[in-house]
TrEMBL record, chain A:
Residues covered by the Phospholipid/glycerol acyltransferase domain: 144-273
Keyword terms of this UniProt record: Acyltransferase, Membrane, Transferase
Pathway: Phospholipid metabolism
Higher taxonomy: Eukaryota, Metazoa, Chordata, Craniata, Vertebrata
Name this protein carries in UniProt: Glyceronephosphate O-acyltransferase
TrEMBL record, chain B:
GO biological process terms, semicolon-separated: ether lipid biosynthetic process
Catalytic reactions of this protein: a long chain fatty alcohol + a 1-acylglycerone 3-phosphate = a 1-O-alkylglycerone 3-phosphate + a long-chain fatty acid + H(+); 1-hexadecanoylglycerone 3-phosphate + a long-chain fatty acid = a 1-acylglycerone 3-phosphate + hexadecanoate; hexadecan-1-ol + 1-hexadecanoylglycerone 3-phosphate = 1-O-hexadecylglycerone 3-phosphate + hexadecanoate + H(+)
Cofactor requirements of the protein: FAD
Protein location: Peroxisome membrane
Annotated Pfam families: FAD-oxidase_C, FAD_binding_4
Site keyed Important for enzyme activity: positions: R412
Signal peptide: none
UniProt protein name: Alkylglycerone-phosphate synthase
Biological source species: Leptobrachium leishanense (Leishan spiny toad)
Amino acid sequence: MMARPMGSLHFQKDYRSKKREVFEDILEERRQSSDLHYAMKCYTPVLYKNLTPCKPSAIKAAVLTSDQLQYVMKQISLESGDPLEVIQEQAAEILDEMGHNLHMGAIRLFALSLCKIFKKLFRKVCVNEEGIQRLTQVIQEHPVVLLPSHRSYIDFLMMSYILYTYDLALPVIAAGMDFMSMRIVGELLRMSGAFFMRRTFRGNKLYWAVFAEYVKTILRNGYAPVEFFVEGQRSRPCKTLNPKFGLLNVVMEPFFKGEVYDTYLVPISISYERILEESLYAYELLGVPKPKESTSGLIKARRILNDNFGSIHVHFGQPMSLRSLASGRIHRSQYNLIPRHLPHRPSEEMQSFVCDVAHEVELHQISNMVLSPGVLIAAILLQNLPAINYSVLVDQTLSVKDLTESFGGSLDWPDSMPSCRVVQSSIELHSNFINTVDGQVTLLEYEQTGDPNKELIFKSAVSVLMCASYRNQMVNLYVRPALVVLACKISQSLKKVIEYIQWPLRKSGYHLGTDTSYEIFKLFQFLRSVFTKEFIFFPGFEEKDFEEGCFLLTKCGILHLTSHEIIMNEKGASAALFLSRMFQPFLESYQLACIYLAMDVCETFTEKQYVSGLRNFIAHRILAGVTKCYEALSSDIQKNTLASFVQMGTVKKVKSYPVNKDSHPFFHPHLGFLENGKTRVFFIYQEDCKYQISHLCKFLKYRYTDKNIPTPPIGFLENGKIHVFLFSKTNLNTNFQAFNIFCF
Amino acid sequence: MNSSSTRLYNFQFICLPRSRSIKPSLPVPAGSRLTLPSLERPAAHCRANRHRPLPEAKGCRGRRKSRGASLSARADLHGRQEVLKWNGWGYNDSKFTFNKKGQAEFTGKRYKLSGMVLPALREWMEKTFGASLDHKTTSRASLTLSEVPEAVVNEGFLQDIIAAGISYSQDAEDRVFRAHGHCLHEMFALREGMFKRVPDIIVWPACHEDVVRIVALACKHNVCVIPFGGGTSVSNALECPEEERRTIVSLDTSQMNRILWIDEKNLTAHVESGITGQDLEKRLNEFGYCTGHEPDSMEFSTLGGWVATRASGMKKNIYGNIEDLVVHLKVVTPKGIVEKSCQGPRMSTGPDIYHFIMGSEGTLGVVTEVTIKIRPVPEYQKYGSVVFPNFERGVACLREVARQRCAPASIRLMDNAQFQFGHALKPQVASIFTSFLDGLKKFYITKFKGFDPNQLCVATLLFEGDREKVLQHEKQVYDIAAKFGGLAAGEDNGQRGYMLTFVIAYLRDLGMDYYLIGESFETSVPWDRVLDLCRNVKERIARECKERGVQFPPFSTCRVTQTYDAGACVYFYFAFNYRGISDPVHVYEEIEFAAREEILANGGSLSHHHGVGKLRKQWLKDSISDVGIGMLTSVKNFVDPDNIFGNRNLL
Ligand SMILES: Cc1cc2nc3c(=O)[nH]c(=O)nc-3n(C[C@H](O)[C@H](O)[C@H](O)COP(=O)(O)OP(=O)(O)OC[C@H]3O[C@@H](n4cnc5c(N)ncnc54)[C@H](O)[C@@H]3O)c2cc1C
């Protein structure tokens, strides 16, 4: 693998701040002194050293007269035939719609109300002050981009609140447009620096141009920190979403075009002990459209105010210099030959750079997340449905706590409290989905008795998804070691299968050589590639991820390495089991998606159709008692499976051009069968998978036994629609051999 | 050649009357009268030139080979070495020092500033660099001859040179004098080190034919030839390649310094390449002409050097850069002589072969004679200056001036740091130095409050032409300036600015006595990137210094020195206090390297006029593409297959 000059990116642990940082509870002071006084305090934020002070209106004027925007407007006017003035008016309107305003009065009112609300909602709001100090320094030196994780609407309220508290410039926030309809809150947010972006403006060239120019103008001036979410939206499953690149591209441009000396990116991790929107998310993931945010809705949400949402940890990460990140990688001189105001597509080199940076930001966010005991409990509970004995739960929570700590996770664990109290209070905090009955801890509404019907399934699913949204906060921390464990287990069961059916090894092309560690690495690599959309991996760092996984597992005594082998230790068996089971729902969801895909093989479909089709399919399977994988109902996972299929070439996204015949045939190369004559097995390590495998294979067999079937049927093309890829004739036979292995 | 349209002038060495002097600050080099040959003799008879070694002179050369070379003999023959510093910039008699009262003064009589006390300089040095008069370094007093690398003698070549009757020297001081240009590390090597390789022999051709002979001999004996003009190179172009095993011959053009003819009908002059800028101008002035080519180094740099480096003069807006001025070239290469057969003002005859020569940096051959455009000496000259509230406005104004194509002969914009620096050089008494800031302060209080003294910047202007047009032009430019918030700030300030350019080069030597090292470098850049480039390069320098343990913030400043239709030339000064740093030259070079990278990343060119030399070679490929390098290489390989001109510049 090519070494990337991205510095010392080795292990996940490198992303973490070197020493554990101290968090201060900023609400504590607020509980002791006057809020009004706080809101009226002298607010003189430090400023960027090259700032030419100006009003928001001046910024807007600068945007409208910028060469960039002027150029695009002329283009649009030429293309559409509309007079330039009309376009200019539209641009001004767009700008007004999204533009921010800054009123000291509003900021104070905002601070006052937020502090009241936060005190009601949260026990503590903890901030690492060292991070604030670092931020204070870079804000003076360079334009700064704040990149918080996004789990809740509270995120940007919280960000502004904290910055105000520490006397830092309020950020200008690129936030989703839904807030616009929340009259008062929207306006208040706007007056304290937020600006808004329509959720979807794909294809609206003018909108994008105005928006991008607005962001860049603010950065160039060093007017205020710009804030947005690399994840693009609130993560419903509460697991870091794969990054979006559009805005990151925009904020990087001023640096690459030499308009600013450097730009600093600050990853920020906001961890909630309990997420405000938790149940809402579960509904959304199950396809119930979320209620439109509106102020009255928010007022209804007052009820929420009487609820307890635990504590929040906000970690301001190490600011990353874009200049250093790009040094040796991107030559700014590539922009020398085209006038800088012309819009252009980022080069491939640039795209991969942006992608790497986005991942790096997210990996930083992940490693500085603070996990609450509830997260561990949720993870354990999900593996022990329908119920787990309370004291067993406490014991297990303690061992998972140890495991988490040795994997380098930060835990908010009150050491002064006896552990059963910690577990107890966590369960209480999450009493809306966790329940204790007769010393048994259960999931509320899970698999209630009665005739299985869709509604019950739905109810169970809500609980499972809510619970999963907590477990999800730790999966990215665990994914590397867990995939190593899975790879080991698959390798073991593969060996068994092959021995059992006495499949001539040579013929299978599967080399179970002596070097099992290499085989395990290949399996790891395969799993990792299947799950690239599900978890956050630094692009290309397969070996390093593998090494890290092995390193952590060895450290915990779960496995040990010899020169050629990776051996699972007996005494680590339970931890290994915990790891593999934690990822079981993901594996199963992907399997189900494969089966669904195989059944629907000839169709062309949209993402929407895919998601609803898959949802029905899974619901039926659950009804039929074939699976209990409620998580597979999550539209997030479903979309990820699709994205993963697309990435692996199993499914192709088609615009208006014909399917490329030379592309990968269906199920080649990754979904479990053959690649270059090597068998890839993905599904068979668990007993209950057999059916699915064989079912799938039988199905395929049935379909393709007849060798006279002409080269696979179809490939319909329609705008924006997705096509399923087809078997290629040449691979048909070999595929078959592979299937035979399992169709015993 | 000597047609009826061409008049031959008989040059008498008359000083121009003061009133006619265009650049009053230009000194008359002490040695020049001795070395300027007369034009009475047609070029073809140059063999009778008295610089040709007479039998006695031969004897003299014989002595020079042995250790006890007589200084006076050398001075008679070759002049300038006696009046110039051996380890610093410029004339021996002119330098900055601190007098007994601890005040800075500039010695000598050559410049307007000469003999004056500069009371503010010391404080400026202390404040800007944290320098102190107590911390002094001293250069060695004279060359340590024993350290000079042993000469590699090619006996055959030497004998042939002697036989050809060409002046030469193997004297160590002569060799070291021609082993360098004026880069920082070269000055350092002179002050406290030594070059790894220096020329082994100096030859002084007296005319084109001498050069032809020398080059033929060099080819015959396979020795390496490095042309040496004024020695003002700032690109390592003169440095001898360390790995060169052959004899290195420094071909000093200083004796080829005659104006061969002047053609008034076509306004051209045919000149030998070794003439220095100031001699050329002075002597053309006597006949009412000038070339108008005035690089800041014009006191010492030569016509041949300009051609070889693609030089640019301060007044290029009226007269053009060297490539605009050259009408005809004669170049001696190992393959023969390159020249064109006519003097048509423009030709479509394939790629212009002169463009292989201009910028060839001594890698292809020796430029021996140049036909250069001349202009009547302008009737009227006027300096001027404008203050802008900040650099951004200043650049915007220059851009507008360029857009309207009404740039005066020279227009330069200094940033704030340079403006303040200019202040530090204010002499105690002198009419033209009526205090600028004092006047300005009054300005502030009355009309122009809001000019922040830590932001404002100054443009200096020089207008030339007939009086009426100059005045008209002046108004036009000031009107534009006013649109950008610029205020006229007087003629004196303008004149002082231009005068300082000749003196600033002397300051480095003073700085080096007090742990301050610095250098200038330049680039050209499209208009829209000027501001970004200036800001980023300055910032980069500051940060690189900090990273490398430089304790005081560096002095990094820039000015826009030339305007073009599509961009500008930007000139940076960069200096820092190196106390506490063990290898200052290395640190300096690393920072300059970083600064150049920053320039390139910001859309600036590798060089506007200093050239590539060896200092910037590593970037040439990226600058002109692989194929471009291939084109240059194949020309080099054809013209000079044995790498006789082996200074290894460019490629
Ligand atoms: C203080 C200072 C100010 C300067 N200001 C300017 C400025 O305003 N504009 C500008 O353009 N430059 C400037 N320079 C750079 C320098 O003066 C120019 O590069 C100048 O053209 C060099 O001329 P020279 O005669 O000194 O050549 P040298 O330094 O002797 O030689 C430079 C190169 O040209 C070659 N060469 C010299 N003569 C010949 C010849 N006859 N035939 C073939 N090759 C030859 C040499 O081998 C060498 O490679 C400045 C330098 C200094 C130190």
